[in-house]
Amino acid sequence: MTIQAETKKHNNNNKHPSRKHSSKKKDSVTVSVLNDKSPLIPKKKGGDDHFNGASKSGAVMNLSTTIIGAGIMALPATMKVLGLALGIAAIVLVAVLSESTVRILLKYSRGGRTDSYGSLMGDAFGDVGKKMLQACVVINNLGILVIYMIIIGDVVAGSTSNGLHHPGLLEGWFGPHWWSGRVFVLMVTTICVFVPLASLKRMDSLSVTSGLAVALAVVFLIVMVAISMFKIVSGSLPMPQFLPDIKDINSVWNLFTAIPVLVTAYVCHFNVHTIGNELEDPSFIEPVVQISLVLCTMVYIMTSFFGFVLFGDATMGDILSNFDSDLGVPFSAELNDIVRISYALHLMLVFPLVFYALRLNTDGLLFSSAQLPLESDNKRFGFISVSLLTLVYLGANFVPSAWDAFQFTGATSAVCIGFIFPAAIAIRDAHGIATKGDKILAVLMICLAVFANVVAIYSDAYALFKKNPSPRA
Question: Composition bias, kind Basic residues: at what positions (predicted)?
Answer without folding.
Answer: 10-24
